[in-house]
Amino acid sequence: MLEVEPLVLDPPPRPAAPGPSPLEAELIGRGITPAMAADLVRGHGEEAVRTQLEHLDWLAEKKPGRIADPAAWLVTAIRNGHAPPKGFVSRDERRRREEARQAKERAEAEERRRRREEETREKAERQAIDAYWSALTPEQQAELDAAATAQADPAEVAQESRAIRKLGQRLRRDQYIRQLLASRATPPAEA
Length: 191
What we know:
Layout: H1 22-29, H2 34-44, H3 46-62, H4 70-80, H5 91-135, H6 138-151, H7 154-159, H8 162-185
Helix pairs in contact: 1-2, 2-3, 3-4, 5-8, 6-8
């Protein structure tokens, strides 16, 4: 007859004990025992624990050495619900302020860049006008002044006093030359 050996089964494996949650692990990393960390998170909630962690981090950053035993301070703060330290600014608020500061700096830098470009453009335009004027003979300059005055509003020209007539003439001339240079720069329209 055939002998059959009894089948021996190994006991089923025990489910592994769950490890600490990330928040519990953070408390453990700060010197709190695993059992106490689990108790604090379970008993006071994640938000309260995170709030006190942020308070502790802020104090450590702003007032180093003030807390002799951070783990003990943290346990007491979580249990008693300590109010924020004087002058406390949350991490989110500090981030928002930093982002606002950076945005302001970027806007100011952009404005400085824009102003430099505008000054460069105006300087180039001024040089082009002066070069155009200088290249004209005295007769051509007189003709250009007459053409610029003819284009101007006669009422404005009549109101100019002697003192500002010369300045007005220069402004009209510059505008007229600006128009001449612009008309040369634009390609002719195709028919």
